Amino acid sequence: MTEKVWGGRFREETDSLVNRFNASIGFDRRLYVQDIKGSMAHCKMLARQGIISDDEASKILAALGEINREIERGDLLISDDYEDIHGLVEKTLVGKTGSLGEKLHTGRSRNDQVALDVRLYVRDVIHHITALIRETRITLVKIAEDNLDLIMPGYTHLQRAQPVLLSHHLLAYNAMLKRDGERFNDSLKRVNILPLGSAALAGSTFNLDREMVADELGFDGISENSMDAVSDRDFVLEFLFNASVLMMHLSRLSEELILWSSQEFSFISISDAFCTGSSIMPQKKNPDLPELIRGKTGRVYGHLISLLTVMKGLPLTYNKDMQEDKEGLFDSADTVEICLEVMTKLIGEISFNRERLRAAAEKGFLVATDLADYLVVKGMTFREAHEIVGRIVLYALDKGKELNEISLDEMRGFARKIDQDVYEWLDTEMSVKRKKIPGGTGHDAVRKSIKKEKEDLRI
């Protein structure tokens, strides 16, 4: 085990079990880019403030750049002998520059250093995730545009309810993902705050130029309270919440893809390239990928609850419990990214069973609400119309007919106001077209929605 950066206070060697239990290098190694970037900005500021010389800063910066390149090439092994990524970078720097490297930590603590690294990481991940969300939305909008004439059943309680355009259904998921992107982008203003300069908890005695470091690293501002800055993980919690909501939306879409691809629905066929088979049943074609997305949603939820639980009882300021923020954060980011990539490719490879979708929209009294609306237009109250249509549906069930198969004389037995024009209201396609209001499933409304989304996505 390498010499500890904090070893001066201790008489005894740390027990090997403590080293293993205490270390975070096994997972925080992936922060090396952020750690080195933050160290470079801190180094430049120390030189600007005259705390170290320009020549010393040049040597430190050159060595840090070399360390970054060595890690990227795999020439520098990130060994478990180090406690954390900060210790590895510092010890390697000292190995290259001697005692000069020990000056870099002037005016900072691992507490504000790790807070900085995690904020830089979350910022980078948000940019990547929002780009992936955009690609998923583009795919959904394109599919919606290509299938604008396709009608399907809309559901409530998983029971057929009213006919809708498939495009309208798909655009509902685009709306969810749009909000997801907005949430992540909005959270950036709380992520993009510089904690460096807070030191361990009380700030620094050195005349640090925190605004310079913030500008160097692209932060919008500096933290206002040093104690809060080193103990705050709200921004990680917010990321995990946003990730959880996003995964919930992907899971809902996955659930529908799974249902729609079943023989019972037969609405879609997922490309063979995005399905798997059975080890025993030769005929099987399983929707494993949407099932995995649905399953992985739970692990992201778990990471959110885990960190909320970690943070709920912590006194100010930094506590070692907070080391538990990273594995859940990293895993959630990885999970969201791969799920978005898979979903985007998968939905782009779906084919729709047009005949089956249309046939399903024609069966099950999906135009019953239209019939009630027709009666309202004829002068009835909606409640009266609702009651009459309910009785007509019961009659149709007994006769084994759909509403448009009932004769005019039979209908007039329930309401004398019904006339020949009622059959225009019982036509599935006309039912959809009548929903013209903004946000509705009518063709014109959906075309406008697609146009608006394409402008928003700049496609």
Q: What is shown here, in short?
A:
This protein is mainly alpha-helical and 459 residues long. 61% of the residues lie in helices and 5% in strands.
Notes on the protein architecture:
The chain has helices at 16-22, 25-28, 32-48, 54-73, 85-97, 110-146, 166-191, 210-217, 226-231, 234-260, 288-311, 325-347, 354-362, 368-377, 382-399, 408-412, 422-425, 428-433, 443-457, and strands spanning 151-156, 159-165, 193-194, 221-222, 268-270, 350-352. The model has no long low-confidence stretch (mean pLDDT 95). It has a two-stranded antiparallel sheet with strand order 1-2. It is mainly alpha-helical and 459 residues long. The protein starts with 15 loop residues before the first helix and ends with a helix. The longest helix has 37 residues, at 110-146.
